[in-house]
Write a structure and sequence with these properties.
Layout: E1 8-11, H1 15-34, H2 39-61, E2 64-69, E3 72-77, E4 81-86, E5 92-100, E6 103-111, E7 116-120, H3 121-124, H4 128-141
Antiparallel strand pairs: 1-2, 2-3, 3-4, 5-6, 6-7
Helix pairs in contact: 1-2
Length: 142
Amino acid sequence: MNEISSGRQWRVSANLPVAKLAGAVLLVALGLLFADGDAVRLVLAVLAAAILAGWAVRDLVAPVRLAADPTGLTVIHGFAGRRKLPWPTVEAISVDRRQRLGLTSEVLEIDAGESLHLFGRYDLGATPEEVAAELRAARRYS
């Protein structure tokens, strides 16, 4: 029996937003420590911390990045919205691998004709190759 028949979700790891929020606090602390009365340094540190905190909030508000069920896929859209992609609209599911500076990165690509949805390992909580294999199998059985 296919695991997707009852629905399957891929989500951000719970540790990731915690790490981002800790990084935001660290940025503010470093900004205060090294500002030496320079308001520009402090403002830049606070701005970077706010961006990082906003990114963490997105992970907390919308942790599920991708879901699959017998009718199709649900992908994150915008900051925390959702978009339903019926299986017939999904043209391709592939994994893009790139190597740079000795590191290899993998991105899951879901081509839905007019839109392209990209997911990394940290978005999915699994390797893009594993997720792509599950999605391809689910698509065959739908």
